[in-house]
Design brief:
Layout: H1 3-9, H2 12-21, H3 23-43, E1 48-56, H4 90-98, H5 102-108, H6 112-122, H7 129-139, E2 140-144, E3 151-157, H8 160-199, H9 203-223, E4 231-239, H10 248-274
Antiparallel strand pairs: 1-3, 1-4, 2-3
Helix pairs in contact: 3-10, 4-8, 5-7, 5-8, 8-9
Length: about 280
């Protein structure tokens, strides 16, 4: 009788009988896998997960003036920041995709504390913004919260204090970088509008340019406030008190099941050679 034929004719009673006959192999392999799981949990470096919740920093920009057309229907440039169909600032989406990118990585390379913490995690020094961006893409997770625009950002690290500090640093760097770019863009518009105003004598044109100039100057004022620009922190960064990895309640069941399965496989192979 071949192995294939035996398996085709096998029923539940036969399977239970095989498991009973394979008990010695299964017990040995379960014990071996249990020892390996114990050693794995002992030698593995625990990682603590830090979390932070952010939301679009749109509180002062959601009024009708944010994309204004004035009372005399004179077209105006976007007042504060462009928004998507749901009214969420595109600067917030830029923030979400920037925090794991090389632009943020390039700034973080200048922080020795950040580089030291990452080296402790990676076991090697990261020297380029591309390497740092790959690390951030691997280690930072961004999860949506329901149907809201809020995002929960996670970062895991062997040092729980560094994990929370890293999230705060990344938020600050990305937010300030976007603020800086918007300020430069606004200043460029102000310079252009002032030059146009000095050259234009048409009253209607001058009024329209003045409205646009006032908007850009308002942007400069708001951008200089000591507030988050693209993303506000709804829930400050905090670290769970227990390690997020490795997880004993996952490692132990997997190890015991794998040991039993391997023991049965070894028993089946030895029986097939004897047949």
């Amino acid at each position: 009788m071949t192995i294939q034929a035996r398996h085709d004719d096998m029923n539940l009673a036969d399977l239970i009988g095989d498991i009973w006959r394979a008990k010695f192999y299964m017990i040995v392999m379960v014990a071996l896998c249990a020892v390996m799981a114990f050693l794995f949990l002992k030698i593995s470096t625990p990682h603590y997960r830090a979390s932070m919740i952010v939301a679009p920093a749109d509180g002062y920009a959601l009024g009708d003036y944010a994309s204004m057309i004035d009372n005399e229907r004179i077209a105006a440039m976007p007042f504060w920041r462009p928004m998507d169909q749901e009214g969420v600032s595109t600067d917030f989406y830029r923030f979400i995709h920037t925090i794991r990118g090389p632009s943020v990585g390039e700034i973080l390379l200048t922080d020795r504390g950040v580089l030291s913490g990452i080296q402790h995690d990676e076991g090697r020094a990261l020297k380029t913004k591309e390497e740092l961006a790959i690390y951030l893409s691997k280690k930072i997770q961004i999860d949506p919260i329901g149907a809201t625009p809020l995002r929960r950002i996670h970062y895991a690290h062997p040092d729980p204090e560094f994990a929370a500090a890293m999230l705060r640093k990344i938020h600050l760097v990305a937010d300030q970088m976007i603020r800086r770019d918007r300020k430069r863009q606004s200043q460029s518009r102000i310079d252009y509008l002032k030059d146009s105003l000095s050259k234009n004598q048409n009253p209607d044109h001058r009024k329209g340019i003045t409205n646009l100039l006032m908007q850009q100057e308002h942007i400069q004022m708001l951008a200089n406030l000591n507030e988050a620009y693209a993303a506000i922190v709804v829930e400050p960064a905090f670290t769970a008190p227990k390690p997020d990895w490795p997880k004993p309640f996952v490692v132990w069941p997997v190890a015991l099941f794998l040991g039993g399965f391997l023991g049965y496989i070894i028993f089946s192979i030895r029986r097939s050679f004897k047949a």
